[in-house]
Amino acid sequence: MTSRLRAVGVVLLLLTACSVPPKEAQKPVAAIAQVHTETAPELMDGADGETLAGGCFGCHGFEGRSFGPATPSIAGLSENYFIEVMEAYRRGDRFSTVMGRILPGYTPEEVRRMAGYFSSREYRPIKQGTDWRLVERGEKLHRRYCEKCHGEAGSDPQDDAGRLAGQWKPYLVGVNRAERGMSRRFTSMMRIQGVESLEALVNYYARQR
Fold this sequence. Notes:
Elements: H1 2-18, H2 22-39, H3 49-53, H4 57-60, H5 79-91, H6 99-102, H7 108-119, H8 132-146, H9 151-154, H10 169-178, H11 184-193, H12 196-207
């Protein structure tokens, strides 16, 4: 008796499944996919700065404190500087490997919200080794070529020129080589002082707190 009931149950189950037309069965899945596709660009509408900034943590670290030498810490940057740099990436005026492709996905208002969030986060200089001999030379070079824009040994966020103090050395080397043509003073330093001057500056900034 039990075996017969089980058999009848299986048959009814199969008949029920087969009675649903293939197109009808696909409608719920298709509808979900359509809703996701149509609303994806609007999902972040109205999101606050913290929510938007979460998309940056994968590369720039939690709350913008970098954990890898290829990317800078962006916690504690001034709002003006953050917005200026992001818009430069959007226009293609600033060299980038990734940021230029990311920025079109954010509106200027969303960038402004992220700027407010990151400017409120605590900046923590990265602990890394430095060569004291290069640090001494780097300090002299900073005072001669860089101090006008990068005050307080590159640690003042309010100078709206980016934060150099305590950043990863490999990042500082890479970004300065990529953008060397953007600053006449930096280009002049490299020409007069030699390529070693960059290593000296990088060691100096890495030592600052």
